[in-house]
Design a protein that fits this description.
The protein has 212 residues and is α+β, with helices and mostly antiparallel strands. The chain is 50% helix and 8% strand. β3 and β4 form a beta hairpin. α4 packs antiparallel against α5. The radius of gyration is 17 Å and the shape is globular. The two termini are 30 Å apart.
């Protein structure tokens, strides 16, 4: 049994999809990412940054979405959500997840939380503009990487596709973000991932209203 500190619109949705795909029992513990509502003390004891997701199991706990993704894929290898450690695509799997976390998510932070990157309020619009350009740059790298592949890593569906879908749900052209239409390969994969029962369950509200 896993416990997942969970908030809608956050990266914890990706981990919940992973748990559904794996078929592992889990409990959702409500938390917040609005920086106003206090987070549960147990969550803060594990991740003092106050971010979700935080995953807890019998003898351990961890945070960071990409790290949790790798952990779950390795712990539940029977689910087939990641290349085996000696598979030819293993390096690309690790590289892509870390790129999502360190580059694309960082660009989103610039657009959603510009106060973290600017010394004064007057500098925040510039941080947002740079974040929007960075989203265009980093997503283009992934779109080019996919090229003619069926999935991000090739012919095999993986956790990387789930993670990429999550990132696409954060795009808001009204905020100056690029449109998903700018990245036809990413869009094609996102349109496939959204059909999966796990995603239909977890992203039901987003599917009904993408701007919720």
């Amino acid at each position: 049994m896993y416990k997942l500190f969970y908030a809608a619109k956050s990266a914890s949705m990706c981990i919940r999809v992973m748990l559904e795909e794996i078929g592992a029992p889990y409990e959702l513990i409500s938390t917040s990412v609005d920086r106003i509502t206090p987070c549960p003390p147990e969550q803060l004891a594990i991740n003092p940054n106050g971010w979700a997701p935080v995953l807890v199991w019998d003898d351990g706990a961890m945070y960071e979405c990409a790290a949790i993704t790798m952990f779950l894929c390795d712990r539940h290898a029977e689910a087939g959500l990641a290349p085996a450690i000696d598979a030819p695509t293993r390096a690309l799997y690790l590289q892509t997840l870390v790129y999502f976390s360190s580059s694309i998510q960082n660009a989103f932070q610039l657009t959603y939380y510009p106060d973290r990157f600017a010394d004064t309020p007057e500098g925040e619009p510039g941080a947002q503009r740079r974040g929007n350009r960075r989203l265009q740059e980093t997503l283009q790298v992934i779109d080019d990487q996919i090229a003619g592949n069926k999935w991000v890593l090739g012919d095999q569906f993986s956790a990387v596709d789930i993670y990429l879908f999550m990132l696409t749900t954060w795009l808001r052209p009204a905020r100056g973000h690029p449109s998903l239409d700018d990245f036809p390969n990413i869009k094609r994969i996102a349109n496939e991932v959204v059909q999966r029962p796990s995603v239909q369950l977890v992203y039901k509200e987003w599917i009904e209203n993408p701007n919720y």
